[in-house]
Structures are given as structure tokens and as C-alpha cells.
Amino acid sequence: MHRTTLTFGSCLTLMIALLLGTVQISNAAGPRPAPAGALPTGTGHGAWNGPDPLAIDTTRIGSTYTLRDPIRANLACTRYNGGGAFTKPVDDWGNGNPTNLETACVDALWAAQKQFDMFRTWLGRNGQNGQGGAWPLRVGLNAVGLGWNPTAGAIDIGHTTSGRWVTEMDLVGREYGHAVDQTAPGWPFREPGLTEGFADIMGTLTEAYANEPLPYDEPDYVIGEKVDLTGNGPLRYMYDPSLVGDPNCYSSAIPNTEEHAAAGPLNHWFYLLAEGSNPGGGKPKSPTCDNSTVVGVGIRTAGRIVYQALLGRTSNTKYAQERRLTLNAARQLDPTCALFGATRAAWNAVRVPPTAGEPACP
């Protein structure tokens, strides 16, 4: 069980956007249709997401409403210790208190629904499970953290050290990222950092897609900053992993580095690819390991590169192979090679070197 314990203003961005247009990289259909009359929009009051109130998709059966999504197959919020999905006679959920289980379900379901839509709209994937659905959420785990439970096929949500439920959007999104990773070709990654970094990227993409304003979970490339899991602040900073003591740059020490810390180079690479080293617009600068200047391509495009690379993953994928996979993905998405060049520059900037057989473009 994976557990968390403890965009764009450049000429290159515009050119890539024009090249990519709105074409989806998927042959998947949309989510399954729901029966007529079964699509109420519930009113939710979350602890971490907003503005309040949130509009969440719920199900009505007779005079009873349920925190079960009517269009995203298998997505529901239940109690960890059993009892099925939350139900009540009114379609109004939560009270904004981060220690309240129903509020936890509001935030978790909102995050999962936003991520489902992000997968379809930005990445061309038909929901978290790729088949028009997701995995259910279970709140109330008596442990610090949250995690993807492959045995149960669910996201299990626990609490912080201060007793608040861990339902921040990027953290819920990253645990679904673990599920996507585990059900993709070539699983698992074979070097520390790639599994956790991929999950961080999926959570960050969800946060960006939702685009919530302050004081809610705004797009910021910072992991776990709202819930403060262990009382020590954010878990990771993608634009500068060293802010929490993680490595910014790849080195021979990475294979022996703790899994979450070893995500530093991948997270750093993703920020540089998406935003660049000096993005402006109030976004933080990102130091490069080779003192280069990197121009970003936008988070949506960067996300497509990461996801396309996942689909091409083979066994024994380490950082070097991930570089090669993303370069192949960039070349497939953009025949002009501008995107390829940006992807390569971002890898160079975190000192993941080229290897024999690396693709060229053109």
C-alpha cells in the first residue's frame, strides 16, 4: 500500500499550444451515462476546497441521497470500517470542519471528480481507471496519512497528527496517481523517486485543473501544504526540492535515497518543463543544476508528456529510461521538435544525462 505519511507565458508555450490544438490522445469514450433523473448536484462544504459551496455529483434513490457518483463508475465515498456510502435525506453535505468525516468525503469526492475530468480533458484518459470510472474512497482510517490500497482497490484516508482528515486535493490526487501507475504497462518503476514523483505530478495536475483561488488548494507545485500532515509544513516543493532537504539534482546517490526524497529530481524536472526556470507571473524561480535557463511549455502539455511516457513504459524503467520515454513522447506530440528540445533541456537541468540510444529530433 502506497501511503503519504509523514501556467505559462512564453513564445514556446504559445507555439506548442497552436501545434497541439485541442486534439485528445485517447480513443476512449466518455463516462457511462446515468439514468434520466438520477443526476442531482449536491451541495458540499469542504475543509480544504472552495469557494464554498462545492457542487458535487451525487446519486438519489427515492428520497435518499448518496455520496456515490452517478456518472463516474465505482466512485463513492464510504466509511473505512464499513457501512457503505454516506447517505442522508437532503443533498447537502459536510460542515467545513476538517475533523468531520462527512466533510472529509466532500473534499475527497470533489478532488476525485476533478481529477477524473482532468484525465479526460487534459490527458485523454477515460477517468482514473481508464474505463470511465475510478476507485472508491474510504474515510476514517485510524492512521496518519492516506494511501492507495491495491488489495481493497480503494483510496484509504486517515488523519494528520493533529486529527484532521487528509483530504487535500493534491494528496488525494497523488494516491490515485499510484493506482494509475500500478495498472499501467511496465509497472513498477525500478529506481527510487519515480513512483512517488509520478504520483506528485498527478496530484499537481489535478490541483492545476481545478484552479481554486486562495485560501483554498490553489495551484502551487507544493505538496501537502494545506493539511500539514505531521506539523512540519509542506511535504515537498517541486520547484525547489531542497527546501525540505530533498535533492534537486540527479546523482549516483539516488538509487540509495529514500523513495519520497528521491522524487526530487523528477519533481524538479516537471516544474522546469511546465513553467521554466524563471516563469514570472508570481510563480517561483527554480534553480537549475547546470545554471541553464529553461523555458516552460505549460503544465497541461507537460502532463501529456508524462502520461504518454507512462503508456510506453517497459520493465526496469529508471531515471535514464524515463528521460528517453519522455523524449519519445515529446517527439510524438510535436513533430517540429520544439517540445522535444524543451523536454531535453529540463532533463539536462536536473543532471539526468543522456544514454546510448537516446532519440534524436529531427
Which secondary structure elements does this structure contain, and how are they paired or packed?
Elements (H helix, E strand, L loop, with lengths): L1 E3 L6 H10 L20 E4 L9 E4 L1 E3 L2 E3 L10 E3 L7 E2 L3 E2 L7 H23 L13 E8 L1 E4 L4 E6 L9 H14 L11 H17 L11 E2 L12 E2 L26 H12 L23 H13 L7 H15 L4 H12 L13
Parallel strand pairs: 2-8, 6-9, 9-11
Antiparallel strand pairs: 1-10, 2-3, 4-5, 5-7, 10-11, 12-13
Helix pairs in contact: 2-3, 2-4, 3-4, 4-5, 4-6, 5-6, 5-8, 6-7, 7-8
Key structural traits:
362 residues, alpha/beta, Neutral Protease, domain 2, globular
What does this molecule look like?
This protein is α/β, with parallel strands linked by helices and 362 residues long. It has one domain: Neutral Protease Domain 2 (Neutral Protease, domain 2, Orthogonal Bundle), CATH 1.10.390. Helices cover 32% and strands 13% of the residues. It has helices at residues 11-20, 101-123, 169-182, 194-210, 264-275, 299-311, 319-333, 338-349; strands spanning 2-4, 41-44, 54-57, 59-61, 64-66, 77-79, 87-88, 92-93, 137-144, 146-149, 154-159, 222-223, 236-237. A 5-stranded mixed beta sheet has the order 1-10-11-9-6, with helices on one face. Helix 2 crosses helix 3, helix 3 crosses helix 4 (194-210) and helix 4 crosses helix 6. The protein is globular and about 65 Å long. The relative contact order is 0.13. Mean pLDDT is 91; it is low at 5-38. InterPro entries: Peptidase_M4/M1_CTD_sf (IPR027268), Peptidase_M4_C_domain (IPR001570), Peptidase_M4_domain (IPR013856), Zinc_Metalloprotease_M4 (IPR050728).
